[in-house]
Every structure is written in structure tokens, then in C-alpha cells.
Amino acid sequence: MKEGPDISQIGALIGDPARANMLTALMGGQALTATELAGAAGVTLQTASAHLAKLEAGGLIAQRKQGRHRYFGLADDEVGLLLEGIMGFAANRGLLRTRPGPKDPALRKARVCYNHLAGDYGVRLLDRLVADGDVTLDGEEAALTPSGETRIAALGIDVPALKAQRRPLCRTCLDWSERRSHLAGSIGEALLARFIANGWAKREKDSRAIRFTGEGERTFMALFP
Predict the structure, then answer these.
(1) Cα–Cα distance measured from residue 165 to residue 202, given in angstroms and rounded to the nearest whole number
(2) How far is CA 200 from CA 154, 194, 213, 216, 219, in A?
(3) Nearest Cα to Cα of residue 17 among 104, 119, 95
(4) Model-level pTM?
(5) For residues 40, 43, 49 and 55, what is the CA-based torsion angle, rounded to 10 degrees?
(6) pLDDT tens across 143-171, in order?
(7) Torsion over CA of 214, 216, 222 and 225, rounded to 10 degrees?
(8) Based on the number of CB atoms within 10 Å of its own CB, is 23 exposed (0-12), middle (13-18) or buried (19 or more)?
(9) pLDDT per position as a tens digit, 114-139
């Protein structure tokens, strides 16, 4: 095809194993240094720098400087959604790079997907909101209803402020482990931030896994049974 979007460029950027590992590392939502990303990719710092330059030129990552250090993160929500979708596609076809390890059950239960909750708990949250009429789905499109606004506001989240942002308020994101959708968008990000701020959950060190405390798990299950 001579006209239209060129998916081959994006495919080539993501398809390189080292760059794929870097992007996966950034799915945790934290900004990482080139040295940290070189370790995640299993390459030298010089090689990592070349890969990062290509990813940045392709619009998949962005960098920011803090003092003498440079930190890299995914460019925006769209990149996170793209990567999670590709992970789900690969998992559906049995294209897994490693055998499940000790961290695998924790990642499947609850993990961060760029900036929102994924895994079993992420899917459970969206299912409950839809079942209660707080979120409506139209294919892959999601919308927060008036009752949903009230429910989210009751958790201490400023919904009008989120509406004022240019980002989508609600959207679905295909969960690679559950093979179903979880909640993304600014509401999804705000909910995960609230769970952590309330002390109900915390991120595991050097992992995308989210660990709920005993009290946090009971509260989550009561809110989203």
C-alpha cells in the first residue's frame, strides 16, 4: 500500500527484542534511566542509547532531564494501550517468551498497566462498574454514567477536574492475562492512584505487580464485589 499509515515502521520498532524489552519495562509507568533500560534489554549502554534514540524518533517514548540525568518513559497512554493490546494478541496465540515464574501469579492477579490497574483485579473493577450501570460499553468505547460519577467522587476523586483534561475519561484496554478488558483512561489512573494513596495497595519493588494489603483487599472486594 503506497498511501495511509505505515504500520511497518511501528512494527519494526517494537519487533526488535531489545526494544521490546525496554518498552515492556516502561509499561510499569515509571521513568527509567538508559542504564536501567540497558539492563532490562540485556545490552550495553551504548547499544541501549541507539535503541532509545530510535524509539524516541518513532514517538513511542519521551525523555525528560532532571539535573545531569535523563529519564525515559512511554510517550503517552496510546503507546501503553498499543503494547498491552499486542501482549494480549501474543498471549492469545500462545506466543510466550518464558515459562511462568514465581512472580507470574502476582502479575496476573493485579499489576500496573502503564498507569492503571490490570490483571484479575482490573477486569473485576470494570465488570462491577458495568454491571452496576456506572460505566457503559459500546464495543471498545467506554463512558462514565452520572451514577458512575457519583460513585467515583465518593472515593475522593475529582471527576470534573479529570473531565477538563484533554485525555479520555474512560476507555477499555485489552488485558493480556485475562484476555478481557480492564479500565484505562484518566479514571483508571485516578483509581489506582487512590488505592495506593489510601494504603490499600502498593507496588512491588522491581515489578509491575500490585500487592493489596489484607485490609485493602477486603475494601476492594467490598467496593467491587
Answers:
(1) 26
(2) 16, 9, 6, 4, 8
(3) 95
(4) 0.74
(5) -60
(6) 999 999 999 999 999 999 999 988 889 98
(7) -90
(8) buried
(9) 889 999 999 999 999 999 999 999 87
